[in-house]
């Protein structure tokens, strides 16, 4: 069974940085899938943050994180990362990773992601 385990979250002051990791078991990142990071803030819907090989096949970021976040993947280690710099209180959310065989655009949540959504990792940014 494919599983994704997110880690690296925590409490950080505004302006700080965090690096999230996503470890995949039973799955290898390759061109057949889009991979991405998503987040869900309290009382809000889950939204796309960044993705690779999604939509038109490129790398895309939500407007709210452009220039601050960087998504990357290490196929050899079967890990995906999200480097988050210049964090803002509005970045506070639970962050999830996922792989999408349909390569949906970032604005559309994967309807049938590979495996199932993990537990996520909590990111809290204090002002």
Ends: how far apart?
40 Å
Q: Tell me the series of helices and strands, N- to C-terminal.
A: EEEEEEEEEE
What is the average per-residue confidence, as pLDDT, rounded to a whole number?
93
Query: What oligomeric arrangement do these chains adopt?
Result: single chain
What kind of sheet is the major sheet? Answer: 6 strands, mixed
Contiguous low-pLDDT stretches (5 residues minimum) are none
Percent range for helical residues? under 10%
Give the helix tally.
0
Q: Report strand order across the widest sheet.
A: 2-10-9-4-5-6
> What is the rounded Rg?
13 Å
Share of residues in strands: over 45%
Which structural category do the helix and sheet elements fall into? mainly beta
Count all strands and give the number: 10
User: Can you tell me the overall shape?
Assistant: globular
